[in-house]
Amino acid sequence: MCDAGVNTMRKTTNTLAVKRFSSYQSPAALPVYQQGFTIIELMIAALLGLVLIGGMIQIFLGSSQTFRVQRAIGEVQDKGRTAMDFIGREIENAGFGGNGLVASAFSTLSQNVDFTAGTTNGTGVGNNDSIRIQYTGTTDCTGANIVAPFLVVNTFDVNGDELRCNGQPLINGVESFHVLYGIDTDNDRFVDQYQTADRVIASGNQTRVMAVRIGMIVASENVRVFSDDISQNIKILDEAPLTKNDKRLRRKFTSTTMLANRP
Q1: Residue 82 is part of which domain span?
Q2: In a domain, 29, yes or no
Q3: From first to last of its 263 residues, what are the pLDDT tens digits of the chain?
Q4: Is residue 52 part of a domain?
Q5: Is residue 161 part of a domain?
Q6: Would 170 be classed as within a structural domain?
Q7: Which of 177, 179, 176 is nearest to 200 (CA)?
């Protein structure tokens, strides 16, 4: 019995020793808690944040620039096409209505197109040309009703940067408006050369006008399309280049229309 009691005490002692040993953990096994970031880590994180923010700003600015340019292109194209289509239809109508239509004030006689009201060189306001067109109709370009003998006279010119018809603004942003006249010099009913109004007058070719060529430079309404000033030299017809150095977008337009009602 003594031996049994001794053995029991030894087993109990061994069990306690095992429990004590198993509950012991070395320092390496203890959990490690983060105490904070070092100054170098914070600086690196701040630098990466600045790089990301800078990239996002560049993307935003680039997108804004692209949007402004695309919007300006659409605006200018729409203005140019509208003006050219409108004037082209008027030129096609020139002389419509038969014999006896020509008024004595028209220098091109049977062509029923004139260079400008009150001058003979075709130069209007701001060194821009002017053209006057007549035909038989019931309303003019402003929508005004025409009474008998129903002679419509429409005058196109530029005042400031507005293209006008009979003084009524059509579109703005027109910085240059010029006209050339197609002359048939050998009576074969084909245009041989294009002349300015003063050359047509000087050479006595008023009755030889077969076509009218319009040239126009249109600028965007937004004066800050580009972020930096852009040097632009734009030439239309036989005019000296138009030189601009600003942030606006510009496009040139040309159109040639035959005089369908020419005798």
Answers
A1: 67-258
A2: no
A3: 445 444 554 555 555 444 444 454 555 555 555 566 778 877 887 888 888 887 777 776 666 777 788 888 999 999 999 999 999 999 998 888 755 454 444 444 445 666 543 333 444 556 899 898 888 889 999 999 988 888 888 999 999 899 999 999 999 999 999 999 999 999 888 999 999 888 888 888 888 888 999 999 999 988 878 878 888 999 999 888 999 998 899 999 999 999 888 76
A4: no
A5: yes
A6: yes
A7: 179
Cβ atoms of residues 179 and 119 within 8 Å: no
Task: Give how far Cα 36 sits from Cα of 9, 48, 205, 246, Å.
Answer: 51, 19, 93, 54
Identity of residue 150? F
Distance separating alpha carbons of residues 154 and 131, to the nearest angstrom:
8
The total domain count for the chain is 1
**Alpha-carbon separation of residue 30 from 24, 61, 110, 213 (angstroms):** 10, 52, 108, 92
